[in-house]
Every structure is written in C-alpha cells, then in structure tokens.
Design goal:
The chain contains three helices and five strands, in the order βαβαβββα. It is an alpha/beta fold.
Length: 124
C-alpha cells in the first residue's frame, strides 16, 4: 500500500499556565504522537494546536519548533469557552503522510485529557 494523508489527534493538560509547562507538555504530546504512529517528521504536513482560554502564557507551536519542526506549517487557536470543558488543555491535530491504514492511527491523550476521548485511549 502506498502512502496516504491522515490526521491524528491528541491532547494533554498542564497543572498551571506557564511557558515551561506549555512547552514541556506539548513536547511530550508531540513526541508520543510521533513515536506511537511511527511518523517521519519530514512527512508531517501541518499541525494545528488549540488551547483552552485559560492558557495564554505561550504558544504550543514554540515546542514544535524546539523539536526541530522548523519547516512544518503550524497554527495555534483558542478553544470555544464552553462551560464545563476540561481546563488547562492543549489539543493537537497533526496531518501526515504514512503507510499506516486509517484504523492503525493511534490518537494520543495524556494526563487528564484522557477524559476527552476514552474510546480512543483504551488501547494505550
């Protein structure tokens, strides 16, 4: 089977809104997504980051740049401030080329973010 363009989702929470926490957590999440899905960083098409409105001290994209994703298009945005949503949460949507089938894509939710999609984390 040839390469296909797929997307993988993920999320992670932080204990407080500081640049260090955002960068550390985002690096952890990206590294785990890349590892679990055997992603060649050269085949990443783009990454969209969203954060809950209580995260304002740094852009998660800074972590991607620090991991060497210098030529990958990145975008950061705020989540809709829905009452009762999971606080201090960073989400990722990464588009990449792979030989994996769609059913083999491993979405990654860490820390308290496992509550967002328990159906996707049961095999982790």
């Amino acid at each position: 089977m040839g390469e296909k363009l797929w997307a993988v989702r993920g999320g992670i929470t932080i204990p407080e809104d500081t640049p260090d926490e955002i960068i550390t957590a985002t690096k952890q999440l990206l590294t785990e997504i890349i590892k679990r899905n055997q992603i060649n960083p050269e085949l990443i098409v783009s990454i969209i980051f969203t954060v809950t409105t209580d995260i304002t001290s740094e852009f998660p994209a800074v972590a991607a740049r620090q991991l060497g994703l210098d030529s990958t298009p990145l975008m950061c945005s705020s989540e809709i401030p829905k009452l009762g949503s999971l606080p201090l949460c960073i989400r990722v949507l990464m588009h990449f080329h792979t030989k994996l089938s769609k059913s083999e894509i491993n979405h990654v939710y860490l820390r308290e973010a496992v509550k967002l999609r328990p159906d996707l984390v049961s095999n982790q």
